Amino acid sequence: METVRLVLLFVHILGFAALLGGLLVQARLPEKVVNPAMRDGIGTAFVAGLLLVGVLEADDDSVNHAKVGVKFAIGLVILVLVMANVRKERIPQGLWMGLLLLTIANIAVAVFWSPVHT
Fold first, then answer.
1. Domain for residue 12, yes or no?
2. Is 14 part of any domain?
3. Is residue 80 part of a domain?
4. 3-state secondary structure of 70
5. How many CB atoms neighbour CB 33 within 10 A?
6. What is the pLDDT of residue 97?
7. Residue 21: domain span
8. Residue 27 lies in a domain
9. How many domains does the chain have?
10. What is the pLDDT of residue 118?
11. CA dist 7 to 55, 61, 118, Å?
């Protein structure tokens, strides 16, 4: 089960890396869009995160449900905002900045909050 957990964690991190990269690649562009890296990144990170919690619960590991809930809520908001704007020709600067801040916040929760399992 440890191997499955590590693979899911790796995929989860790759998903957030793709999302963050998709956002940062547009930093100097005057017009922002929801690009495939953002769409695929948040989808991958969200699904892998759900599966990761499932594996931890199935393995009877102690799970910090408050942390998982916060990460789930932030991830869900990002997912909804990205998917709601995926077909739009461009997105407002404020939405792009909000997505960037939410992504950074979710990463910060993962890094600075106590571990999901002990």
1. yes
2. yes
3. yes
4. helix
5. 16
6. 98
7. 2-112
8. yes
9. 1
10. 47
11. 11, 17, 18
